[in-house]
Amino acid sequence: MEERILKFITALRASGVRISLAESADALSAIDQMGIQDRETFKLSLRSTLVKDAENLPVFEELFPLFFDTNEKPPLMNISEDLTPEEAEMLAEALRKFKDQLRDMLERLMRGEPLSQDELDQLGEMVGLNQADNMRYREWMAQRMEKALKFKEVREAIQELMELLAEMGMNRERIDQLRQLLRANQQGMEDQIDQFAGMRIAENMSNQPPQAGPEDLLNRPMSSLTDKELDILRREVHRLAAALRTRIALRQKRAKTGQLDAKGTIRANLKHGSVPIEIKHRRRSLKPKIVVICDISTSMRPTSELMLSLLWQMQDQVSKSHTFAFIDHLEYISPDFNIQEARQAVAVVLERMPPGHYNTDLGYSLQNFTEDFLDTIDSRATFIIVGDGRNNYNDPRLDLFSMVARRSHRTIWLTPEAPALWGSGDSDILKYAAMCDSVFRVGTLAELTSAIDHLLGG
User: 138, 222, 261, 262 — which has fewest CB within 10 A?
Assistant: First the structure.
């Protein structure tokens, strides 16, 4: 049982659940104390020690029965035992009209015979189930196995069989009963296949070598990450944002009174004979107004996606925000974030603006911005560009960028490219950088988090 629990923990980690070695030890200790006889107590012991975030509960609930309910099989009914001799003869004659494979499957459904372990293993190997290591493939793999068994043709054959029995004179009520029982047995077989697919994928996940944790990925260049590693970082954004929010809020609390106002203090205390009694401070606005333009072309997509997710999580630290995305034209995307969770909103934006065979054009996007959205920029706004500054040799429209930079309180540029590449090829970033207050390299999530801490924390 201990080995199965460890495999379960490995599968949870592979699905993105953060579980430390100490928490794994706590789980084993809890099982030693509570035992495994009562299923619900056993399940609660694992859940309370291994799951910290509510968003991970669905993963736990999906994997738990695959590791600890593996002996359960969907119930199938033997229909043929309930037939009269006359009905059995009619059924046998009707079945002879079908091809061998369909007839064999229909007879199997009549007997209520489930698939054997060998048959399931052969089907899994045939459709590539042994290589699947993510639960998102479970339904697809089950469908491929059902297709190999010609389940669609079987459903059509059941209907044809019922029509043949009706022509032979079988009672209509009896035909309806047979149809329902056959379909129930086929559904039971489908459930068996789905359970097997989930169990095999869970075992594949538990046999994977240890993956890099979020801490290991924070300092890895985002351009080198796999889709699975990016998924880990997407889940990590929530934790990073919470830590940032706490740090920035504490900083603002300490600085909320602003700097000492010497002249104001003297003026306020003239009534006390110039003896300072009441201290005055210069108040300052601590929450910035931000306007963000993100390049979401293929090369920039991971950086911009994580940036948008972090900013959404930090909404309570800004007074107002306006968010835009561009590839070859500009789109206002703030409304997407006003009505949806960050991950959903980012997914909608990326779906609406997919990468394609067209050129990134910041210059034209700046033209869109100044024509339609220039009123979002004022002396209180922090203007942020997230991009690599590569314009595909289009006009960078430095005149428009200069105008926006002059109107804003400060201008920040975030780029994932190394400084050694700035200005090479079609890169115009050095031309833009001359008009920026700060340029940050954000090639990793750690660097991106540090940059956001700087611009929101003042």
Answer: 262
Rounded to whole angstroms, the Cα distance separating 178 from 159 reads 11
* 329 phi/psi in degrees, rounded to 5: -155, 165
Top CATH class, 230-255+288-457: alpha beta
- The mean pLDDT value of the chain amounts to 80
Distinct helix (H) and strand (E) counts, the chain: 20, 8
Domain boundaries, the chain: 2-72, 80-206, 230-255+288-457, 258-286
Q: What is the pTM of this model?
A: 0.54
The distance in angstroms from the start CA to the end CA of the chain is 53
State the DSSP string of 76-90: ----GGG--HHHHHH
- Alpha carbon of 126 to those of 121, 146, 203: distances in Å? 9, 12, 18
* b (16+ CB within 10 A) / e for 33-58: eeeeeeeeebeebbeebbbeeeebee
Interval 280-309: pLDDT, tens: 655 555 567 889 898 888 778 888 878 877
